[in-house]
Amino acid sequence: MTHQPVAQVRELLKSIETGDAAPVAYINPNQYIQHNLAVADGLAGFGVVLQQLPTGSARVNTVRAFQDGDYVFTHTDYNFFGPKIGFDIFRFEDGKIVEHWDNLQEKPTTANPSGHSMIDGATEIVDREKTASNKTLVRAFVEDVLVNGRMDTLGGYFAGDAYVQHNPQVPDGLSGLGGALKAMAEQGITMKYDHIHKVLGEGNFVLVVSEGSVGGKPTAFYDLFRVEKGVLAEHWDTIETIPARAEWKNDNGKF
């Protein structure tokens, strides 16, 4: 497996900050399917967004980057029309980028209850030989607990209370997750996962792309998990409301 596509994606994302036009050549000019619903389809749509950025305003720090077959997925600290944390997924075909998905969330100004940001934490990729089994584990967790609400299975996915949490609202530990879910329920805030669209991984890191709702609003969930010794050890996420159909700049859908 070559990691050349990972380097290309890093360069492409960084070019949003630097203005370097060369990395755009990594995109297939005749086929670039865009799933960011605020951006028009094709290479031209990407160019329009870059032209709209105030000069010198963009900052791009890609903290994590992974490859799973034809897909490269990244975790980035952005200042892109304001501070955001984002996951991006790029699909390669015949050596060129032909499709892009992302999920962006406004960056909090303070740490979460356990002192973590949305982007800090472990970055080293290990256990590449366990990629398939780790993807199976994480998919099972999301299906059991988040999609089907089988809270009785929750403990089996964790090593006691040892769980590092980067969600802005949730403290560390299995107890923190349980407490946050209970508090949301008491406040009448419903968060529902309906369907998993993608599970991508490299080694000990697995990204799950899901569709559901928060407070009744259609929502995209991107959840990145780090697996250690067969259990879930760390979690990052972004949650983005899916805009109404009339507001879409392309017809490709969020997923």
Reconstruct the topology from this structure.
Elements: H1 4-18, E1 33-34, H2 42-52, E2 59-68, E3 71-79, E4 83-93, E5 96-106, H3 131-147, E6 164-165, H4 173-186, E7 191-202, E8 205-214, E9 217-228, E10 231-241
Parallel strand pairs: 1-5, 6-10
Antiparallel strand pairs: 2-3, 3-4, 4-5, 7-8, 8-9, 9-10
Q: Would you kindly provide a written description of the structure presented here, covering whatever features stand out?
A:
By secondary structure, this protein is an alpha+beta fold. The protein folds into two domains: 4-110, Nuclear Transport Factor 2, Chain: A, CATH 3.10.450.50; 128-241, Nuclear Transport Factor 2, Chain: A (Roll). 22% of the residues lie in helices and 35% in strands. The protein contains four helices and ten strands. The strands form two sheets. A five-stranded mixed sheet has the order 1-5-4-3-2, with helices on one face. A five-stranded mixed sheet has the order 6-10-9-8-7, with helices on one face. The longest helix is centred in the middle third of the chain and has 17 residues, at 131-147. It is globular, with a radius of gyration of 18 Å. Residues 138-235 form the SnoaL-like domain. Pfam families: SnoaL_2. This is SnoaL-like domain-containing protein. InterPro entries: NTF2-like_dom_sf, SnoaL-like.
Strand content: 35-45%
What is the total tally of β strands?
A: 10
Give start-end ranges of low-pLDDT stretches: none
* C-alpha-based Rg, rounded: 18 Å
The top-level CATH class of the largest domain is Alpha Beta
Query: What string gives the helices and strands in order?
Result: HEHEEEEHEHEEEE
Structural class: alpha+beta
